[in-house]
Amino acid sequence: MTLAIDGGTPVRTAPWPSWPPPMDDAQRALVTAVLDSGRWGATQGGSACSDLVAAFARRSGVSHGVAVGNATLGLFAALRGLGVGPGDEVIVPAYTFVATATAVLLAGATPVIADVDVADLHLSAPAVEAALTSRTAAILPVHLAGSAADMDALNAIASRHNVAVVEDAAQAHGATYRDRPVGGLGDAGVYSFQASKAMTAGEGGLIVCRDQAAHEAIWSVCNLGRSLDGAWYGHPHVGWNLRLTEIQAALLLPWLDRLDDEIDRRNTFASAAERELAPLPVTVVPQPPGATRDSRHLLMLRLHVPFDRSFLLAAMAAEGVPLDGGYPPLGTMSALTEAGARVEPCPAAEAASREVVWVRQSMLMDDLTGATHLAEALAKVLTRA
């Protein structure tokens, strides 16, 4: 069978669902109302931002939240609000987006890049234990691809060593761990509303936390050092303007009503894909222990045969079934090491960078013919890759 990259007929010619989807009626109505009100900024008396924060905090099982301009700033603000700064170290997983580490640098601390679990690719508790020093101030687990990290194990380490836990939940809107929402399991959790995420306003982020004192400190970081009950021109702390706009909140708030249906749709696709891929030397990367609801931001696939990564990605794209090559290990990024990041041994992350590819969220929103096309294209391309 001739591959499409060699001039053959592609497996799929139909487009995949676009992301983000078009505005629905509820979004359009609320965005229009905000635009017509003229109250576009978060401090102008509108209610979209405050309503979004309240709804997201409830959904995360906590009482407090702060809406911010993006999740990188959210991680920075959470760390600073929890007292992390120059001289401190923050342990981050080696297999994640670079912003997890650069947010630590932005806070003035040192990222310590630790390995991930060899199977599920989430931050490894034994690797965290090995990376701890007297300077460790926080652990920053990532709920990778929409699946919850093993929070019981990581929280236990944090409790024993009296360090903070900040959850990077950028990819995990609606995910649960032991039937509890992610984001509210550590000292703070941070969500992303960037364009590729399960809820998006193009950009944006939201911090949730359960402790009132932590909330007040994080809020101050995001609001120019003000205090919640202080004067407008009173700035008892150093802070920045990191706020979300009312227009962005208006796009996001109605999304909460359809989020669960979209998660169900992606999980249905993922289950079908796993069945279709069963005859091939390809497996779906499993969830960590305790993960009970995967929001399926990505479907991560591990290939169990040697393959030429560049060729496979190009050939799959030609077949009409594009895949993503995934993350390089953070420790291989010279910009991070030159900025002072400390790198622990990370063989599992290095293996993942060779063996794992991704199916993007927009493709998971397709009907089940998409799962069939995924398996057919991989079966075809793996004969050559």
Automatic annotation (TrEMBL):
Keywords: Pyridoxal phosphate. InterPro entries: DegT/StrS_aminotransferase, PyrdxlP-dep_Trfase, PyrdxlP-dep_Trfase_major, PyrdxlP-dep_Trfase_small. Gene3D superfamilies: Aspartate Aminotransferase, domain 1 (3.90.1150.10), Type I PLP-dependent aspartate aminotransferase-like (Major domain) (3.40.640.10). GO terms for biological process: polysaccharide biosynthetic process. Residues 1-21 are annotated as: Disordered. CDD domains: AHBA_syn (cd00616). The active site is at K197 (proton acceptor). It comes from the Bacteria. Its cofactor is pyridoxal 5'-phosphate. The modification N6-(pyridoxal phosphate)lysine is found at K197. GO terms for molecular function: pyridoxal phosphate binding; transaminase activity. Belongs to the DegT/DnrJ/EryC1 family. This is dTDP-4-amino-4,6-dideoxygalactose transaminase. It comes from Nonomuraea jiangxiensis. The lineage of its organism: Bacteria, Bacillati, Actinomycetota, Actinomycetes, Streptosporangiales.
